[in-house]
Amino acid sequence: MPTNTEGDSVATVQCPPGTTVTGGGFTFLTGPSVPVRSSDLIGNGWTVIVPGSDQPSTFVASAVCAG
Q1: E strands present in 6-66
Q2: 10, 21, 32, 39 — which has fewest CB within 10 A?
Q3: 14: confidence class by pLDDT, cuts 50, 70, 90
Q4: Residue 9 φ then ψ, to 5°
Q5: CA dist., res. 6 & res. 49, Å (int)
Q6: pTM value?
């Protein structure tokens, strides 16, 4: 997910059916690591919110699933 210059950028990943999310996080793939607004469990997945920035970056969310 590339960061947005005008608003929040959101990346979400869901655990497969029959499994339960036990944790998660994020990784910046390109550009600077900018401050993250939140990185939290949402439903049965993990969501990362990065505020708008004038420094382009690309990031992904990851979830740890059990079951």
Answers
A1: 9-14, 20-30, 38-42, 45-50, 58-66
A2: 32
A3: very high
A4: -110, 135
A5: 13
A6: 0.87
